[in-house]
Amino acid sequence: MFASIVVGTDGSQTAYEAVRQAVSLAKQLGARLEIVSAYEPVSSARLREEAQHVPTDLQWMVNPREDVDATLRDAAELAQEAGIESEIYARQGDPADAILDVAEERGADLIVVGNKGMTGAKRFLLGSVPNKVSHHAPCSVLIIRTT
């Protein structure tokens, strides 16, 4: 039914719940997991400042997408612990667009996102990630209640 599942994460607790449930679903279905996180580049000035406080042999870790790399590693470890094959994708820009792009590129059968931002008046805002994903997805979407 679902052979390829895309899940988005930003490292938040609600996103962790979406990843956890996507991992569980992938395990039950024998599906592959595509884990996506978006980022905005960190300014060069901030990178230079941070690099000054890091030992020389570790300065390569200070990069424009250092936070997203850690977020993706954590999610991939969760998948690996469950025996799920996964791939990670760090994409610059809008989180919803990143999820949608990976879903299209990988021919995903399902996108899993958390419901954060879909309660109250916020649910009417076009910028909401789950709202945008649900309206533009090339496949089925499962919105996990995380809040």
What low-confidence regions span 5 or more consecutive residues with pLDDT below 50?
58-64, 118-127
Kindly provide the radius of gyration, computed on alpha-carbon positions and rounded to a whole number of angstroms: 16 Å
Structural class: alpha/beta
How many β strands by DSSP? Answer: 5
SSE order, as H and E? EHEHHEHEHE
Nearest-integer average pLDDT? 83
**In order across it, which strands form the biggest sheet?**
3-2-1-4-5
Q: What does the main sheet amount to?
A: 5 strands, parallel
Can you count the helices? 5
| Global shape | globular
Characterise this structure.
With 147 residues, the protein is α/β, with parallel strands linked by helices. It is 41% helix and 20% strand. The chain has 5 helices and 5 strands. It has helices at residues 13-29, 44-51, 66-81, 95-106, 129-136; strands spanning 4-8, 32-39, 86-92, 110-114, 140-144. Strands 3-2-1-4-5 form a 5-stranded parallel sheet, with helices on both faces. Helix 1 (13-29) links the parallel strand 1 and strand 2 (32-39). Helix 4 packs parallel to helix 5. The longest helix has 17 residues, at 13-29. The model is unreliable at 58-64 and 118-127 (pLDDT under 50).
Question: What is the strand and helix layout of this fold?
Answer:
Layout: E1 4-8, H1 13-29, E2 32-39, H2 44-51, H3 66-81, E3 86-92, H4 95-106, E4 110-114, H5 129-136, E5 140-144
